[in-house]
């Protein structure tokens, strides 16, 4: 039987070593991985919105949470509901994902304002009461400068993104857009949580 491998010309304590090169396919796969890595880095870590692992996770989380809407039923876009959910961290996070998926091109990633107004200060252009947030998300404002989302978002999503926007008030994000509109009274206090009925 012929052995195509040849021994290397060194020996350690009488131990010899064959020259067993890596398979060509393995070496080319390694080279291809290195060549592909800049493309991967630019795509997923180059700063484009919605492409980072974190952003993809947030979108998947929101999709999963929509399946949980049966847990909370149909939310009413009234002041009590919006304020209550603005204090529920798990649902505020859902509202944040909805916001970052749809609203950052006008309002900035953190609500600091770009084309649209700053949502983190105390000044509001079309809002007098907290429930007005949901009305504007639903129907739009400013001659369609703010588009209507009633045909693109689930009613619960409108309430939850409104709760998130309400929670931004007073954050005063650094580098935010200047005041736009007038200062309005504070949001009402969060209502007490309804007591759960005792199971028989």
TrEMBL record:
Comp. bias intervals (Basic and acidic residues): 171-183
Record flagged with keyword Electron transport: yes
Keywords attached to this entry: Electron transport, Heme, Iron, Membrane, Metal-binding, Transmembrane, Transmembrane helix, Transport
Gene Ontology MF terms: electron transfer activity; heme binding; iron ion binding
PROSITE patterns, alphabetized: CYTC (PS51007)
Domain Cytochrome c: 90-169
Name of protein: Cbb3-type cytochrome c oxidase subunit CcoP2
């Amino acid at each position: 039987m012929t052995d195509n491998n040849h021994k290397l010309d060194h020996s350690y304590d009488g131990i010899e070593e064959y020259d067993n090169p890596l398979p060509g396919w393995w070496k080319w796969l390694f080279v291809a991985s290195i060549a592909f890595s800049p493309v991967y880095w630019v795509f997923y870590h180059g700063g484009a919105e919605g492409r980072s692992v974190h952003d993809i996770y947030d979108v998947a989380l929101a999709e999963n949470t929509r399946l949980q809407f049966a847990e909370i039923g149909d939310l009413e876009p009234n002041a009590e509901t919006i304020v209550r959910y603005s204090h529920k961290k798990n649902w505020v996070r859902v509202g944040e994902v909805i916001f970052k998926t749809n609203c950052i091109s006008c309002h900035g990633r953190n609500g600091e304002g770009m084309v649209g107004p700053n949502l983190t200060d105390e000044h509001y252009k079309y809002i007098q009461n907290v429930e007005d947030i949901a009305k504007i998300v639903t129907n739009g404002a400013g001659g369609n400068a703010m588009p209507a989302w009633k045909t693109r978002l689930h009613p619960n999503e409108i309430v939850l993104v409104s709760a998130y926007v309400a929670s931004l008030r007073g954050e005063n994000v650094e580098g935010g857009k200047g005041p736009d509109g007038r200062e309005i009274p504070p949001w009402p206090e969060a209502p007490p949580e309804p007591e759960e009925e005792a199971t028989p």
